[in-house]
Amino acid sequence: MAKIEIKKKICLLGGYGVGKTSLVRRFVYNKFEEKYLSTLGVHISKKKIKLRRNDNDSSIYVELFIWDIANIEKFDLIVNNYLRGAHGAIIVSDISRPKTAESSSELLNKFLKVNNNAKYIFVGNKIDLIANTEFDKDNFVSKIPNGKSHFHFASAKTGENIEAIFSNLCLQLIEDFNSG
Amino acid sequence: MSIDDQKSLEILRQILLSESLTKQKDFEKELSELKFRITDKDSKIESFYPIITDLLERKIIESEEEFAQVLSPIMGKSIKKQFNNSKDEIIDALYPIMGQAIKKSVSESIKELYNSINIKIDNALRKGIFSQRIKSKITGVSTSDILLQDSFPFLIKEIFLIHESTGLLISHVSSSEKVKSADGDIISGMLTAIKEFVSESFRSDSGSENLYEIQYGDSKIVLERGLYTYIALVYSGQEPAGFQEKLTNLSNEIHNDFNKKLREFNGDVSKLSKVETKILKFIESFKTVRKDEEKVKPRPVLLYLFFGILGIIFVLISFLTLPDYFRDKSIDKIISVKLGSIPNLQMEKINWTNNSGNFTLSGVVNSVKMKSTIDSVIGTISQIKNCNNQIGVLFVSVAPDSLLNNIRSVIQKMSANKVTCQIIDDQVVLEGFVDLDVDRLDLGYQISKIPGVRIIINNIKVDRVYNFSDEESKNLIKRIKLYFQFEKTEVTKTHIGQLDSIVPYIRRNPNLSIKIKGYSDNIGNKETKLWFAKQRASHVANYLTSQGITSSQFLTENFISDGNESSNPNNQRRVEFELLNSD
Questions:
Q1: Residue contact B164–A65, C-beta within 8 A
Q2: How near does any CA of chain A get to the CA of B213, in Å?
Q3: Bridge-based pairing state of the strands B427-434 and B419-424
């Protein structure tokens, strides 16, 4: 069985407090809260994911290098450089704060300006908060113009849907390999 | 309703509601107090004060990070403000703790640095300044640079080849597993982030600034940027000459050789696996032994001492034996050459041994004369102190009549008409007279060479009647040869007998000019030999002067024998005469 190993850089985008860091922590280390400080305004972590190719006969190992970038709202030159070369992005919003969904599109557009062929996925984090209350998911998603087809709800706190988000993005990232 | 009824109702109401009214008033009073507490700042503080600590504690436990995020900007500002307003007070307060801590830290660091430098310099100097100077001459690098390189040996620890835009690691090679960083991927990402951070954070008027170097501990990271990748090289020690240029060449080579793959890089590093070979080759070209990583082992003093003594003994033995060995070799060579020059001597039948300068000759020759010639030749070798000639003489058996005829033939040939010969018990006995002593010796010498002659009894006497005609005297002068012993120059009685035979003729012819030719053998130093030759000629000239011959009648000349006259050194050391004019 053929084995392919590739490396991909992805960026985590999202406003303050949407839970980007928690999302990475949950995905990479399977931890929710942990002290975290980045002097440079970026924290890089990696995780290897095994995916089966379309031919079902071989696997692709994707090593994701996840750049968790702080102060993304500023979008200054440093942040722009951090985004440079990224193959994909996860744009995170907080479902308890609808405004964060509205800014998701803006973040995506800025990201695509730097990496126009990159893949992306939207994540509505903190789904655990509305477990027992009424929440209009469609309404939330509708705040993101092109979000419908790429939107996932998740919870960094409970771990719900986290693996699926990253796997989904990875599948997009390896389209070339699958088609080949 | 009558008035009474109304009064009664009022009384009843008072009875029934008095308590409620009182309570209402109390409530109203409490309500107004509460309203006051809520609206009044001081009252609010007073109300929350007892529970504020509990409240904060609970909040911190529930969401520490959130709390910190909220408070940190305020606290940061507050602390900053406090620092600005009361710098001196804060410094005074912190000094007793921080001052001591800093002092200790600095002191420890300096001590560590001092020890480290001492060890490194010591290691470098152990190699010796002399060898470093030689190295400097050969390489063209200054001695101080070599000393620095030896003190702080250059070691490439690891090299990262990183994709420029993504920060993804393409290749990671280290000089040894021991120094290889555990997670090259994360390091690559962070290096890229740092690089980007620096380039944008420290922008100048001319644009963004590039990061070229990072230093940590005793190591450095140099960044060599290319179009699609950059190299991060981690090293310690002193950079050797041409290092930066080679690094740039490596980057250029990688870009040239893998241009298309780098341009189309999509995260599949397996396509660029061959880059590793190139980087490894680069590391190999700089590989040096890292001295400072070698633990300073205690010197094995006893072992050094043992080998030292062994060395001294070896040197002493060499000093004592080698000169003898080479001298013996040299003497052997001289003997071979000298004996080899004796005509008709069969060298393969001659052997000799050397025991501390005492030589023993063995083997066989076919005549006594040959044996004595060997003796003479050996006698001329100054390095031989004693020689025991045990060479045997294997005589050729010749019939006595035949032998006698051969001897007579020689006598006749030499015009020794007054000489007779007979053979008595294998001995050749010569009797009679010759004109000169030289004739007597010559005749004996010539007869000794005849095969079958073992012993010669030479009873020939010199007929001292020096009344030669002019013609005879001229022939005599041409024939006279005065032979000398080794390193002897004095005129002997034999010499005088020969010289006296020619003195009357020279005295009779004051216009006669004679050259006196002094000869030495050809063994040894040329100047010494010429000196001996000159002395011989000079002594002969002095004798002639003493016999009344004017010194203007002769001149002297000195020669070293070329060996053509005779291979026997005894015959080479001589004085001859040459008539320059016969009138």
A1: no
A2: 17
A3: antiparallel
